[in-house]
């Protein structure tokens, strides 16, 4: 009995440590220096756990992006960055992210 109880508790702890993720089909646009470098349908994976959150997507044959926020700090493709403003994208209902050191490249997707 104790073995079964210990196994159940171990499983419960292990499961709670994993991130809860959801996927949704979105429209994504990749901007370079203000111009559309690629656009199309993509699948956005959004994960959330106790330490933070992440968004990941890749357009078919296009650029990939991974946005992670942990302890209040956001990285875009492993480099310091965050949400950026893009008037054209905002008018289409897109949210954009970019690397702080490279303001000319932005990764945008519809609401997730």
UniProtKB/TrEMBL annotation:
Signal peptide residues on this chain, from the entry's feature table: 1-19
Keywords, comma-separated and alphabetical: Signal
Superkingdom field: Bacteria
Protein name: Lipoprotein
Organism from which the protein derives: Neisseria bacilliformis ATCC BAA-1200
